[in-house]
Amino acid sequence: LILGPRRFEPGESVEINDQVISLLGTLILWQNWVAFNAGASPQKSIVVLAGMTTVASSCMAILSEIIYSRLRYGSINLPVLGGVLLCSLVGTSAYCSVVMPRFGLIAGMIYPAAFRLLKCLRLRLSVDDVVDAFAVHAGGGMCGCIIVGLFADQDLVSSNSYGMLLG
């Protein structure tokens, strides 16, 4: 506020200064997010299921991003990898207690695409968001809501409605 906005050219990427510390913070957040998702489960009988779904989805998101980055660019971009991980954790919070881990694996494959798409939109619009908070939260939130609508398990949902693909 006192310094004013940073100045950068349209399409210019403003990157994180210390990628290793950023990734370390992301990994610490991952550990705590798994505990949060499991501990916030409405029923004690599905605590392990919620934790497993969170881990399965986030691991598949990381693996999908690594494979894509290696095939497309020949290297792995750590800030993007951390962003994809956080995007998957945001999305997993929506469905960790109502989706089985095997569907969490499927869900994990879409987070890299959602994160990269919204990151490109941010760059195109020249929005100053160094940590890609918009891509993380919007991408994860939208994907998480869609996954609930597709894969919510009838035995885990307390109402009569459940996922379209499992009904």
Describe this structure in words.
It is a single chain. This protein is an all-alpha fold and 167 residues long. Helix content is 64%, strand content 0%. The chain is elongated.
Q: What percentage of residues falls in helices of 4 or more residues?
A: 55-70%
Q: Into which percentage range does the β-strand content fall?
A: under 5%
What's the mean pLDDT score? 86
The rounded distance between the terminal residues' Cα atoms is 52 Å
Shape: elongated
C-alpha Rg, in Å? 17 Å
Could you spell the SSE succession in H and E letters?
HHHHHH
Most strands sheet: none
Oligomer: single chain
Task: Give unreliable regions as ranges.
Answer: none
Q: How large is the count of helical segments?
A: 6
- Backbone structural class: mainly alpha
Count of individual beta strands:
0
Task: Give a quick precis of the structure.
With 167 residues, the chain is mainly α. The chain has helices at 19-39, 47-72, 78-95, 101-108, 111-125, 133-151. The model has no long low-confidence stretch (mean pLDDT 86).
What are the defining features of this structure?
64% helix, mainly alpha, elongated, 6 helices, 167 residues
Topology:
Layout: H1 19-39, H2 47-72, H3 78-95, H4 101-108, H5 111-125, H6 133-151
Helix pairs in contact: 1-2, 1-3, 2-3, 2-4, 3-5, 3-6, 5-6
